[in-house]
Design goal:
The complex is a heterodimer of chains A (about 110) and B (about 110). Chain A has about 110 residues and is an all-beta fold. Chain A has no helices and eleven strands. Chain A is globular. With about 110 residues, chain B is an all-beta fold. In chain B, a hairpin with a 5-residue loop joins β5 and β6. The radius of gyration of chain B is 14 Å and the shape is globular. The N and C termini of chain B lie far apart (about 40 Å). The relative contact order of chain B is 0.34. Classes of the chains: A mainly beta (about 110), B mainly beta (about 110). At the A-B interface, β5, β9 and β10 of A face β6, β10 and β11 of B.
Chain lengths: ~110, ~110
């Protein structure tokens, strides 16, 4: 069984640019959530996709957008990058199972904005 | 809103010492509670979880009990190893709706031989 994978592992961009991060969910999982983890902090929820539809969104501006594809893989797009967007971006996949549903995390993409 | 508060780190222990990392939460209803661990340079791994009051989650020698009366989910291990050195995150998901994880700030544990 393949776990959650993310690409690329590291990325350097300059302020104002756009970036696309990718995530492949674990086999059998139809839900993908994205989190932003700033250095020394806990992950913050960005949004969740369930069966190709956005299912919930955290307190992030519209320049953070996403997609989920029919194979349940997902993309996170960030436009007009700002210095504060520098962080580890984590993707997690799951299958709806009610209370205590476990989310399985990928290794993350580390984004540096200069 | 819902939140999780963890004890500040770093926590520095000698091998075989007893570990406690405190976690308290604020949430409406009956959240599910989790401990995740992050090893250097890696993503998060689920360590244990509990979904209702008085449940005890356990894994790899770690334990935590869901205490509704004190809104706590403290992580404990009787004898830590150097390989337990990592950052530990307490988290919750609210009952009902989509399962958005709300994390604490994390507690760094360093275990020395």
């Amino acid at each position: 069984e393949t776990g959650v994978t993310q690409s690329p592992t590291h990325l350097i961009k300059t302020r104002g640019q756009q970036v696309t991060l990718r995530c492949s969910s674990q086999s059998g999982h139809n839900t993908v959530s994205w989190y932003q983890q700033a250095l020394g902090q806990g992950p913050q929820f960005i949004f969740q996709y369930y069966r190709e539809e956005e299912n919930g969104r955290g307190n992030f501006p519209p320049r953070f957008s996403g997609l989920q594809f029919p194979n349940y893989s997902s993309e996170l797009n960030v436009n007009a990058l700002e210095l504060d967007d520098s962080a580890l971006y984590l993707c997690a996949s799951s299958f709806p199972s009610g209370e205590g549903e476990t989310q399985y995390f990928g290794p993350g993409t580390r984004l540096l904005v200069l | 809103g819902d939140s999780v508060t963890q004890m500040e780190g770093p926590v520095t222990l000698s091998e075989e010492a007893f570990l406690t990392i405190n976690c308290t939460y604020t949430a409406t209803g009956y959240p599910s509670l989790f401990w995740y661990v992050q090893y250097p340079g890696e993503g998060l791994q689920l360590l244990l979880k509990a979904t209702k009051a008085d449940d005890k989650g356990s894994n790899k020698g770690f334990e935590a009990t869901y205490r509704k009366e004190t809104t706590s989910f403290h992580l404990e291990k009787g004898s830590v190893q150097v390989s337990d050195s990592a950052v530990y995150f307490c988290a919750l998901t609210r009952a009902g709706g989509y399962n958005k994880l709300i994390f604490g700030a994390g507690t760094r544990l360093a275990v020395h031989p």
